[in-house]
Specification:
237 residues, mainly alpha, Cd81 Antigen, Extracellular Domain, Chain: A, two-stranded antiparallel ribbon, 2 strands, elongated, Tetraspanin_animals, Tetraspanin, transmembrane helix, Tetraspanin_CS
């Protein structure tokens, strides 16, 4: 159970503190994602406390603590299942919100939102993509549309095309309207990455659920094995 608690809390901290991925772009503008990160951190911390109470109940054979541990683990597991179902059925809405957030970052780039813009540059470089749906997203950018020069985002630059060395962020100047960039949109590449790694993601989720189920089974077994509560077993400090 401690491993599952640490995983949940770690995932929440990753969402809150990450500044080099799509999560950073979204969480900087999405209050929902921030709330989710705080909920995950809270659930992870609360679960660790429950784990301590469960260990205390097992060591000193206190049935009420074992029962409390079982009940809270059950509620957490049900909440995780409910959240997974909600995300599945609201995936179109989430995709739309992500599209709107990224579109605003692209349109206003470079603006005051430094963290989101740096994360977006990092995503385009590492995922080898340009724009959310494609390079045409950048046509709406204020600097590109108002400039007399042929500008393109440096982080979109295709490393296999000249010039060999360009900046990691900001705008670069092209010799023509045929930009030397990656043509694939980041939505497609992110989707491909998720599809490639869905086994790992699913395995982690199932692993956490299995650990919680094992904790529930063990706590119930210990609770049944304790025939009579003896509150004198509670340690005195």
């Amino acid at each position: 159970p401690l491993l599952s608690c640490t995983t949940i809390m770690g995932f929440g901290l990753w969402i809150l503190l990450d500044n080099q991925s799509l999560i950073a772009v979204l969480q900087d503008s999405s209050m929902v994602l921030k709330v989710v990160s705080y909920i995950l951190i809270g659930v992870g911390s609360f679960s660790m406390l429950l784990g301590f109470l469960g260990c205390l109940g097992a060591i000193y054979e206190i049935r009420c603590l074992l029962g409390l541990y079982f009940t809270c683990l059950l509620l957490i597991l049900l909440a995780q299942v409910a959240a997974a179902i909600l995300i599945y059925f609201q995936r179109d809405l989430l995709r739309k919100e992500a599209n709107e957030i990224v579109s605003q970052v692209v349109v206003n780039y470079p603006g005051q939102n430094k963290t989101a813009e740096q994360a977006w540059d990092y995503l385009q470089r590492t995922m080898q993509c340009c724009g959310w749906n494609g390079r045409l997203d950048w046509d709406a950018n204020h600097m590109i549309s108002n400039s007399s020069l042929e500008l393109y985002p440096c982080s979109c630059h295709n490393a296999s095309l000249p010039p060999p060395n360009v900046a990691d962020s900001g705008f670069c100047e092209a010799s023509s309207n045929d930009w030397p960039i990656y043509e694939t949109g980041c939505l497609e590449n992110v989707g491909s990455w998720l599809f490639t790694n869905y086994g790992i993601i699913l395995g982690i989720c199932l692993g956490v659920a299995v650990i919680e189920l094992l904790g529930m089974i063990l706590s119930m077994g210990l609770c049944k094995s304790v025939h009579q509560e003896d509150y004198t077993k509670v340690p005195k400090y």
